[in-house]
Amino acid sequence: MAQQPVSLALSGYAADASGLIPNWLKLDSAEVHAPVLHLFPTRPSRILDIGAGIGSDAAWLASRGHSIIALEPTDALREAGLEHHSGPRIEWLNDRLPDLLSLMARRETFDLVKLTAVWAHLDPDQRRVAMPNIASQVGKSGRLIMSIREGWSPANRPVFEAAVDETIRMAEANGLALIFRTESGSIQPANIAHGVKWHWLAFERPA
Predict the structure, then answer these.
(1) Lesser CB count within 10 Å: N end or C end of the chain?
(2) In whole angstroms, what is the distance from residue 32 CA to residue 54 CA?
(3) Do 106 and 48 touch, CB atoms closer than 8 A?
(4) Phi, psi (5° rounding) for residue 170?
(5) 43-90 confidence digits (pLDDT tens)
(6) To which H or E segment does residue 148 belong?
(7) What pTM, to 2 d.p., does this model score?
(8) Considering the chain, what is the average pLDDT of its residues?
(9) Annotated domain spans of the chain
(10) Share of the chain above pLDDT 70, in %
(11) Can you tell me the distance from the alpha carbon of 1 to that of 206, in angstroms, rounded to the nearest whole number?
(12) Minimal CA–CA distance to 184: which of 145, 144, 140, 149?
């Protein structure tokens, strides 16, 4: 049976983990999220990081007083996260898009749901399943912040064109209001060399 698109990407991340981990350990989460940094909560909040990788963002957020569920389906990345970025404010969870079965069973909501560099790994059919599940995790007055990759990606970690306006319509159909959009270049050398761009979107659920 052919692998689903998101499974192909996860297999690629698993295969490339030994090279990715040391590079990701060098990244500055504040620099990565600079375009939307002003939208992160300033008071201690409950945050869900979908596709947490090795947990650098989770650790950065924990250092700012937040409590985080770091959701990561790739074993090698999650294990590296537990090694390098564990702590009482970070809970690691093995789950994956589009269904988020383990997460959905918990019936929780969050002040912030973060989806960095994940959305384009899902194909259109998977996104239609994923968006209602992601939106259901955003509590009242809570926010969803996401980045969407545009351009090159390694062949074993495929991405699919994800139209920004379509993504906005999907989020709005699930009760989230757009509060910010912008685009930026990448900060990683390989992405810079290939002209990768990032589209940043932020939504809020009305109180």
Answers:
(1) N
(2) 14
(3) no
(4) -65, -45
(5) 999 999 999 999 999 999 999 999 999 999 999 999 999 999 989 999
(6) strand 138-150
(7) 0.93
(8) 94
(9) 5-35+45-204
(10) 98
(11) 42
(12) 149
Give dist(CA 32, CA 55) in Å, integer. 13
Residue 185 scores a pLDDT above 50: yes
d(CA 172, CA 111): 18
Class of domain 5-35+45-204: alpha beta
Query: Shortest CA distance to 71 belongs to which of 37, 29, 118?
Result: 118
Long-range contacts of 92-96 (CB under 8 A, 24+ apart): 92/52, 92/55, 93/69, 95/71, 96/6, 96/10
CB 6 within 8 A of CB 159: no
Helix (H, G, I), strand (E, B) or coil at 162: coil
User: pLDDT at position 51, please?
Assistant: 97
Task: Give the span between the Cα atoms of 36 and 31, in whole angstroms.
Answer: 10
Contacts 24+ apart (CB under 8 A), 176-179: 176/135, 176/138, 176/144, 176/203, 176/204, 176/205, 177/203, 177/204, 177/205, 177/206, 178/202, 178/203, 179/39, 179/143, 179/203, 179/204
Q: Using the structure block, give the residue that is written with the tokens 């019936």.
A: 107
